Structure formats: C-alpha cells, structure tokens
Amino acid sequence: MVDSDCENEQLKAYDAAVELYQLAALMLGDEGQAVELVEAAVAQTNIDPCAEAEASVHEARLNLVETAVARLSLADPKAFEAPVLAGEHGSGCIEDDDLSSAGISASQFAGMVNGPARRRLRDWLNKLPVAQRTIFVERAILGWDNAAAAASLSKAASRNWQPGQVSQLFRMALCSLATSLVHATAVQA
Asked: Terminus-to-terminus CA distance in the chain, angstroms?
C-alpha cells in the first residue's frame, strides 16, 4: 500500500514535469526539442531533497528558461539583440504591459494556455520573433516582471537588456495577440 504523502509527492513531480514540458514547448516552438530541453534543465538543477519541492521546481524553471534562451541565441545570434527604446508613444497599440490592456481576462488567457485554444496560442507564438516570444512567455506565462525578464535575457543571451526594452517588446506582442484574437473572432462570425 502506498501512503498518501508519497502519492502526493508523485503527483507534484508529474505536474512539475508537465509544466516544464509545456513551458519548453512554448519557449522553443518545437515539442520534440522540448523534451531534450527539460532533460537538460533538470540535469543542471541542484535539487536539495530536504528543501521545499516548489524551490526545486522554481530552480528547474529558471534553468529551463536560461537554457532555452542560450540555445535560441546560439541558433540565431542576432535574435536577442536588445532593441532601441521607442519614444513615449512609439511602442504600439497597447498602452500598458499587462494582459488586460490587450482585452484578455485571466480566465480567457488560462483557456488559451491550458484549454482548447492552446494550439492557436502556440501557432501565434511561433509567428513572433524569438525575443518577443521569449518575453511573452516570461511575462504572461511565468508572471515575471520586466526587471526579472531583462535580467534573465541579459544573463542567458549575453546581452544588456533593460526593463523598458522588455516592456516595449511585451506590449508589441500583446498588440499582436489582440489583433490575432480580433481577426479570429471576425473569421468565426
């Protein structure tokens, strides 16, 4: 008989593996490469068996993002060149850098990430430039702020990213997503 604490830990490990795989697939745009990325990220993670499980998952998540950015940067060295900041009104159709500014509620976005619209989200993400896709995943999926995303990009891509540059590209991605959703709604109508 398996005790319930062990069952709970197995379920947590399974959920963490699924989360890491989904994150890797969104980052890379390739489900086949996602498995290899998860394996590499977990192998690089120092897991303390005495620490909270969430701390290990957090470390694996950070390693996964950094490894993905490093691989993407290696494949296309110019992909993560930090953009020149646009003027005050030159950064697109979205004024603020949160999902609600694009007219997307938290429940709608959850449906796009985990629900029936998942394929449409992945298809849309794959059309974005690599840096925009990465920033979108860091900001919208992981919930990182601009400073955390800039630090991650600076470290993994060996570039000097600033929070304002992350914000600018995130707003551009939000604008693209909002346009895509309006177009999809018009086609369905």
From this structure: 54
